[in-house]
Amino acid sequence: MPSVSKHPSWNNPVPVNKSSQPSQPGHPPVTRSYQRGWADLRPLVITPGAMPQAEGSALVEMGNTRVMCVASLEAGVPPFKKGTGGGWVTAEYGMLPRSTSTRMRREASAGKQDGRTVEIQRLIGRSLRAVVDLSAMGEHTITVDCDVLRADGGTRTAAITGGWVALAMALGTLQAQTNLVRSPLLGQVAAVSLGVKDGQVLLDLDYAEDRTVDVDMNVIMTGNLDLVEVQGTAEGAPFPRNLLNQMLDTAQDGIQQLLAAQRKALAPGA
Length: 270
Known about the structure:
single chain, alpha+beta, Ribosomal Protein S5, domain 2, six-stranded mixed beta sheet, four-stranded antiparallel beta sheet, 5 helices, globular
């Protein structure tokens, strides 16, 4: 696991992309954004330290989707954790009003969060906690705020990938400030979206693809490629088990690239 001490060069973006075949065997070529093949990620840039006043932060850009992830460290824990000696990691998610093509009403002005927001921020929190030893944090809380600056598909998966970078930085700060015996960080976690259109798997959907696919899926994996969560839906007709296996294999290939980008973003002198 790379060092998570803050480094002056963390304002340098880390781009990642990979080329592949334009279509799967037996399928016609597909036309996708950024001239990608069916198993390509969109152009990826992770900029750590994008919010320097925070204990951890990262701006993640996947194509035209941009999410600011900021981790804040606070003493104390929620009531259900008090007296346990352990800490807590949680997340909040939101979208700027013009992150989409037309203005969205701020949820604060509506007086409540909608169901989608609550679902996504719970997913982010669960995913991040999967790679943290809460018992090793002491009674501290880290809140990872994920704010969508521009939405073009895959905002929740980008938030998890960038949120982990911010979290790793904040846990490094916690360890340095409190002389913890061991790091609470157990490993990495990253996420990607994918779908199926006319029988062909497509990795890392943008909005135009996401709204037309026959199957829609989000996959979250650890650095060991263990599954944290799989969210998959047939938008029309049911899909066969072998297609699910193919989607998971494709997701794993994409997540390995995301994990490499995270490590590179946190490496000293990156």
